[in-house]
Write a structure and sequence with these properties.
Largest sheet: 9 strands, mixed
CATH architecture: 3-Layer(aba) Sandwich
CATH superfamily: NAD(P)-binding Rossmann-like Domain
InterPro entries: NAD(P)-bd_dom, NAD(P)-bd_dom_sf
Strand order of the largest sheet: 3-2-1-4-5-6-10-8-11
Organism: Halobacillus amylolyticus
Number of helices: 8
CATH topology: Rossmann fold
Protein name: SDR family oxidoreductase
Distance between the termini: 22 Å
Mean pLDDT: 96
């Protein structure tokens, strides 16, 4: 399975491309924003596509040609304003969903926020509410897109070393999870068709990742 990783130069994305390239059943195509980012992924043996999410659907769709799945790991980051949140976390996600449809790619995995419910929007601080709102509507768009989707809601992201053990369910208690383990959860979801049409929260726990994903 060839997988387009959107936001490959992010911290989850880099782990994900590395894990995919070390998996005999998967092959990565890294979608990145800058030419100077290419060498990192070429050193992993991954194909690259230099595309900015602020470009049009047709440009993103060209990057998705010939792949079997799309994983959206991109984000505007914590140091940008609501404008970039709308352009990347909402519009960029929606354009990528539409690009997948345009390119004939059915499998789509979205990395969302831990809680994107209407209640979470109302409870969020004024600075965080635009992000939760963007993720909420991107998730809703994906659910209505007639794609084989999986939506992953990770807990508080850390840069700690992954343990390979998580707790995953439609709802779990809020907790931390290393980005490295989120990447492993994505790989397990790609390999398990039972995750199609499902969304789940995931945090560090005591179950091996494949076991946790199978039990969702």
């Amino acid at each position: 399975m060839k997988v387009l990783v959107v936001g490959a130069n992010g911290q989850i994305g880099k782990h994900l491309v590395s894990f995919i390239q070390n998996n005999d059943n998967l092959e990565a195509k890294a979608m990145i924003r800058k030419q100077e980012q290419v060498s990192f992924f070429e050193d992993l043996g991954a194909e690259t596509a230099v595309v900015d999410l602020e470009q049009d659907i047709e440009t993103i769709a060209k990057a998705a040609e010939g792949v079997d799945a799309v994983v959206f790991t991109a984000g505007s980051g914590p140091h940008t304003g609501p404008d970039k949140t709308i352009l990347i976390d909402l519009d960029g996600a929606v354009k990528t969903i539409e690009a997948a449809k345009f390119a004939g790619v059915k499998r789509f995995i979205m990395i969302s926020s831990f809680d994107t419910s209407r209640e979470a929007i109302l409870a969020a601080s004024s600075s965080f509410a635009p992000y939760v709102t963007a993720k909420h509507y991107a998730d809703e768009w994906l659910k209505r897109a007639d794609l084989d989707y999986t939506i992953i809601h990770p807990g508080l992201l850390t840069n700690g070393e992954g343990t390979g053990q998580v707790e995953a369910a439609y709802e779990v208690d809020r907790a931390e999870i290393p980005r490295e383990d989120v990447a492993r959860v994505i790989v397990a979801s790609l390999e398990n068709e039972a995750t199609i049409g499902k969304e789940f929260q995931v945090v560090s726990g005591t179950k091996l990742i494949k076991e946790a994903i199978t039990s969702i």
